[in-house]
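Q: May I have one protein plus its fold?
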Amino acid sequence: HANSGGSGRGFLKTSGTSTYYQQKHNYLVAKLVYDQLLKLGWGEFGCVGNFSYYPLRNNRMPSMLVEQAFMSSPYDESRLLDPKYQEEEAKAIVTGIEDFLNKVKE
């Protein structure tokens, strides 16, 4: 998913990546994916809990929402449109999920 800033002053400068989760047992997967995304050079927008977005509610399995970046930011959007970056980002998300699976396996 790609985030977007509001129409208020400075929205073109709002940048960064974030992850969202609803249930506290989903914090770890959201945080580990977020940490991997930050390694790609994004600014911190946060790992946000208690986020009541429909796909995150009432899940029996780990779930989170990845806001890759802000499509309202020209810089973020240019990175999101780059196929090479898309591959790097996908690998970062997979690495975060693998980190989660390894931690819960311990």
Observations:
- The helical segments are 27-38, 74-80, 83-105.
- DSSP finds three helices and three strands in the chain.
- Residues 83-105 form the longest helix (23 residues).
